[in-house]
Every structure is written in C-alpha cells, then in structure tokens.
C-alpha cells in the first residue's frame, strides 16, 4: 500500500511535464493519492489535461490563482468529489520577464505588485479558501528559491516575493497548526522549466550551481518531488512553518567552492 493511499490532494502549477508540480503529482499518484489539477489559461489546458488523465486525475479545472472566484471554484469542484482535502501543492510564481534582469531598483510598482500577488498572496488566498475543507492532519507545500534569502543575479523582485512567501508559510503554519494542518516550503535548486526560462542568464545559474554545490550537480524535479512527498505524507508529521532546501547543498556554500583535486 502506498504512503498516500486514500489521500486527496489538489496540485496547482502544472504547465508541462517539466514542471516541478508534475513531478510531485507523479510521486503522489505512485503512492496512491487521488489528485485534482488546475491549469492557468487555455493554452495550458491542452498540456495539463492529458497529464492529469495519465495519473487518473479526479478533476482538472481552470484557475487564475490571483482571482479569488477562480480559487473558490477549485475548492467547490473538489467538494463535488471529496468530503475533505488532505493536501495541496502550490507551485505557482510569476513576474514580468523584464523585472528578472537588470537593476533591482528599476522594479516598477506594477511589477512589484504582480510578483507579490502571483507568487506570495496566492498561497494565502488558497489556504483561506481551502481551510473549511482541509482535514485534520492535512499538509500544504509551496515552492521557493534561495533568492528569498540571498541576492542572486537577475532574481530581483522574485527574490522579494519568495521572501514574502516563506514568511507567509510561517504565519499560515501558526493559523492552521492547532488543527494539525502543516504548511511548508521547499527551496529548490535551479531546474530547467518554463518559469525558469524567464530568468536572465538561467543557463549560467545552472552551471554555477552545478560547479559550486557540495554535490557538484543540480537537483532534479524528481528529487524535489520526493521531499514534497515526505512533507505531504506521514514523514513530515512534525514539520511545519519550515523552508527545506533541496538544492544539493548549494545554500551552504558561502563563496566559490575550491575545485576538487581529483
Ligand atoms: P513551471 O513554469 O512549470 O510552473 C509555474 C506555474 O505557475 C505554471 O504552471 C504557471 O501556469 C503557474 N502560474 C503562474 N501564474 C499563475 C496564476 N496567476 N494562476 C495560476 N497559475 C499560475 O515552472 P516551475 O519551475 O515548475 O515552477 C514551479 C514553482 O517552483 C514556482 O513557484 C517557482 O518559482 C518554483 N521554483 C522553481 C525553480 C526552478 O529553478 N525551476 C527553483 C526554485 C523554485
């Protein structure tokens, strides 16, 4: 029997088979979970629906996470199929491409607001809307990045939004903790996905992380997914309000690592 047998969860943020959310969905399905999916925009529907079907998705509905009514509609859809929600994966972020290069102080007011609402507030709104349906022992996971803690090239306003997201995780953990509902973030190392393609010089960031992380390689979607599974399942039963780094140890390196002798 899989560790997620009988668990019902919503996965937000699948864009294609490279998405971190998709790797998490595959891992949850493998362990026996029932899944509901959302997609953002018509063009995404063509990609997400077949993926959802592949893992026997119970529903697959549109959702602009910045739209309160859309988020409520997802919860209402879940209520048609299930009498509770056991887990949620929030794997959503957005900033305008032009904000992810150049000087941080050139961030526009509108660009700041867009990144904050799309990447941090959506998590708050999602938790509030889902709260009445969340079961005792439920678990919520979101995705963050090291740019929340450190200045990383080109990450700019997204770093600020991820810092806000990680703070939101702590406040949400306190709100939901008394009901034995856990809220955590995974700070993933860089992975080549659609969202990452918007970050300036992303290839260079990948190479830098590979060459300077203690493990001398980059993380995979599947490795992030296995950590998400742990947090969503029984393995994470006493972990909440946390941001776990899944980045081959890159975050512990304070300067360019000395090349190996051998
Ligand atoms: P991705 O492009 O596959 O996923 C991003 C998703 O966000 C897409 O499905 C997109 O449709 C969705 N989205 C954006 N705005 C939305 C909105 N308003 N409503 C609903 N959905 C919306 O890329 P990914 O790399 O899998 O990104 C998933 C998460 O992982 C993001 O939060 C990202 O910041 C985070 N992350 C990515 C990396 C990386 O290097 N790829 C590293 C650390 C953290």
Detailed description of the structure:
- This is Enoyl-[acyl-carrier-protein] reductase [NADH].
- Its EC number is 1.3.1.9.
- It holds the Pfam family adh_short_C2.
- The protein has 262 residues and is α/β, with parallel strands linked by helices.
- The chain has one domain (8-247): NAD(P)-binding Rossmann-like Domain (Rossmann fold, 3-Layer(aba) Sandwich).
- The chain is built from seven helices and seven strands, in the order E-H-E-H-E-H-E-H-E-H-E-H-H-E.
- It has a seven-stranded parallel beta sheet with strand order 3-2-1-4-5-6-7, with helices on both faces.
- It starts with 7 loop residues before the first strand and ends in a 16-residue tail after the last strand.
- Residues 13-15, 19-21, 40, 44, 63-66, 91-94, 118, 143-145, 188, 190-191, 193-196 line the site of nicotinamide-adenine-dinucleotide (NAD).
For the biggest β-sheet, the strand order reads 3-2-1-4-5-6-7
The radius of gyration is 18 Å
SS strand fraction: 15-25%
Number of E strands: 7
């Amino acid at each position: 029997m899989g560790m997620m047998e009988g668990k019902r969860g919503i996965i937000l943020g699948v864009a294609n088979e490279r998405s971190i959310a998709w790797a998490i969905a595959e891992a949850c399905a493998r362990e026996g979970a029932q899944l509901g999916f959302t997609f953002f925009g018509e063009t995404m529907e063509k990609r997400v629906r077949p993926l959802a079907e592949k893992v026997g998705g119970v529903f697959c509905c549109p959702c602009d996470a910045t739209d309160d009514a859309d988020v409520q509609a997802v919860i209402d859809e879940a209520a048609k199929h299930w009498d509770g929600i056991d887990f949620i994966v929030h794997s959503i972020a957005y900033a305008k491409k032009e904000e992810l290069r150049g000087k941080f102080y050139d961030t526009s007011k509108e660009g700041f607001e867009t990144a904050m609402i799309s990447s941090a507030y959506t998590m708050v709104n999602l938790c509030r809307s889902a709260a009445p349906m969340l079961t005792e022992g439920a678990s919520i996971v979101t995705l963050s990045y090291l740019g929340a803690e450190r200045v990383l090239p080109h990450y700019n306003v997204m770093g600020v939004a991820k810092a806000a997201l990680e703070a939101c995780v702590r406040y949400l953990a306190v709100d939901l903790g008394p009901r034995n509902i856990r809220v955590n973030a995974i700070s993933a190392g860089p992975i080549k996905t659609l969202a990452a393609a918007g970050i300036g010089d992303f290839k260079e960031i990948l190479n830098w992380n590979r060459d300077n992380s203690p493990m001398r390689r980059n993380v995979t979607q599947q490795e992030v997914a296995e950590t998400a599974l742990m947090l969503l399942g029984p393995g994470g039963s006493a972990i909440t309000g946390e941001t776990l780094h899944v980045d081959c140890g890159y975050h512990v390196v304070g300067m360019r690592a000395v090349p190996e002798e051998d």
